[in-house]
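Comment thread on ticket #2218

A.B. wrote:
> Attaching the input chain for the structure job we discussed in standup.
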Amino acid sequence: MAREFNPNRILHGNEGTAWFNGKKLTTLQSIEAKVAGDFEDINVCGDPSTYRVYNGYSGEGTFTCFKLDSDVVALMAEAFRTGEMPTITIITALSQKGTNKVERVALSDVTIDEFYLAKFEKKAKVEEEVPFKFGKFDLLESI
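C.D. wrote:
> Ran it. Output below, let me know if you need it in another format.
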């Protein structure tokens, strides 16, 4: 059965939120997380085709928030000084307005490879951009 188009059902970023280690990112401006497959080309004698075999995947992303506190900087500064990396999870949720439907994703084994100690400019709100990589993901709910 084909669905009838309803422009009110288009997902909108205003209905999205995310949690960093259980703490809601209340000033979240954007988040993206993507998975890239690792494939290897396979060629066989006598066959001109190139086949591909799946070897696994990698995940990476970035979130950007207005800076209210130093939670991420403090967490990562301590980790880089001591060499003991924290366990980090990120959960995202994107609701579909007018329905009870939500798309939720959990990212685990998250690592933050770099972070800003200072970044600001005059007459500008301060945003914190945090690039990350992740090992595992789970699609908790889909629309």
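A.B. wrote:
> Thanks. Noting for the ticket: The longest strand covers residues 47-66.
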